[in-house]
Design goal:
Keywords: Membrane, Transmembrane, Transmembrane helix. By secondary structure, this protein is an alpha+beta fold. Helix content is 45%, strand content 13%. It starts with a strand and ends in a 5-residue tail after the last strand.
């Protein structure tokens, strides 16, 4: 589920004007289907684990873009929307007689159909849902493949692939596969030239055609539901039906419409997860080379050297790929004790059976930004003297940055990247 990232004019290293740059695995719009696709996987592309890694990262990106584009065309085709609409109609035709029959038997003011009509509706309902379950198997796999190929770019083995092309080849920031992940771009582009330095704009500027199609589907569902409610209201008014019929129709339509909305929300949550993952990568790998250039704030020079250490509670997260350095801390709750003008940080686990660690922290990359609500951003990294990036989360990220500044540890936060 790759993105095409919009970069504002001031962030461009060359001519003025906004541009659109690759970010993540951008699906190919009209990529030809590989010749052996139908023979090995039917009309579905293979899973990333079933495809051996090619020689270079550029080759892998071209492959991933092709497979992701094909999976998304299968998953977002008009046939699926038409099949979903047909399911709603079949479900209404099949379930409404049975619901009216039961309502009439329990004394509700509605005219119930005959038992034969209710039985016929039940058969139609069963056939419709069976056909839907059989037909949507390909969509289930296509959705799984979309997630797998979108997340595959964060695999350590993929990120470790060698650079493709000639060493002296001039690279285009807008189209070069090496620019789609800041870890890959670290040795190629200067920080000022990277298309993802504008983190505040990037928070709201991620766009891609797939997310647009998903949003269009959501608006389609909304308009269809609104139109259905209007039609029900008009039918009640014109036919002078009682108040039970709209309730029955709403209950009958709840399973297919609720299921469609559940799948839609699930897709939006995954798109949000991808945006969070890419924000995390951008903050980590773009902030790292900026640490040597961030001078400690000398505004508190009058503070006494023997001042009491500051303690901040954090949660150490599992190592994030690609894993760096040699220090490994067990995930869990820890307390960071930072002393004035000392980069030696003591970490004490909340678990009494755990052992504390004294680590030399050379920098803090913080996702906290004053423009966010309360500065609440989950990801922060303690950069140790051996190059290890220890990911942590903190409920008070601004306090964490202030404590690091108290210890004269260089801090790179989101607002430092803009």
């Amino acid at each position: 589920m790759g993105y095409v990232h919009r970069t504002s004019a001031w962030a461009r290293p060359h001519a003025a004007g906004e541009r659109r740059t690759f970010w993540g695995v951008v699906p190919a719009l009209a990529a030809p289907r590989p010749r052996d696709l139908s023979r090995r996987h039917g009309d579905q592309p293979p899973h990333p684990r079933d495809v051996p890694l090619p020689a270079t990262f550029a080759d892998w990106y071209a492959q991933a873009s092709t497979y992701l584009g094909h999976a998304e065309r299968l998953d977002l085709g008009l046939s699926r929307l038409a099949a979903g609409g047909a399911l709603v109609v079949v479900h209404l035709v099949g379930a409404l007689p049975g619901a009216a029959y039961l309502a009439s038997r329990i004394g509700l003011p509605v005219e119930g159909p005959s038992s034969g009509t209710a039985l016929t509706g039940t058969v139609v309902l069963a056939v419709g849902w069976t056909a839907w379950a059989w037909y949507r198997r390909r969509w289930t796999r296509a959705w799984d493949l979309r997630k797998a190929w979108s997340l595959a770019i964060h695999d350590e083995a993929v990120l470790a692939l060698p650079v493709g092309g000639d060493v002296g080849e001039e690279r285009d920031l807008d189209t070069d596969p090496e620019s789609v992940h800041p870890y890959r771009a670290a040795g190629i582009f200067e920080v000022a030239e990277r298309p993802f330095v504008d983190t505040v704009y990037a928070r709201y500027g991620h766009t891609d055609r797939v997310r647009g199609q998903e949003a269009l589907r959501g608006w389609t569902y909304s308009f269809l539901l609104l139109g259905l409610l209007v039609l029900v209201a008009l039918s009640v008014r014109l036919q002078r039906a009682g108040g039970t019929l709209p309730l029955l129709v709403s209950l009958v339509l709840l399973p297919p419409v609720g299921g469609a909305w559940y799948r839609y929300v699930r897709r939006m949550r995954f798109a949000h997860r991808m945006a969070q993952t890419e924000t995390r990568d951008r903050q980590r790998w773009v902030g790292l080379p900026l640490l040597p250039h961030v001078a400690a704030d000398a505004a508190d020079a009058a503070r006494a050297p023997d001042e009491e250490p500051l303690a901040v509670k954090v949660r150490v997260l599992p190592p994030q790929p690609p894993v760096t350095g040699s220090t490994v801390l067990p995930p869990g709750r820890w307390t960071l004790s930072l002393s004035y003008d000392s980069r030696l940080v003591r970490l004490t686990p909340s678990d009494p059976s755990g052992s504390r660690h004294d680590l030399v922290v050379t920098g803090l990359i913080s996702g906290a930004h004053p423009g966010l609500v309360g500065g609440r951003t989950r990801w922060h990294w303690l950069v140790l003297d051996d190059g290890t990036h220890v990911p942590v989360s903190c409920r008070q990220p601004l306090a964490l940055a202030a404590a690091a500044d108290f210890a004269r540890i260089p801090v790179v936060s989101s607002n430092s990247l803009t």
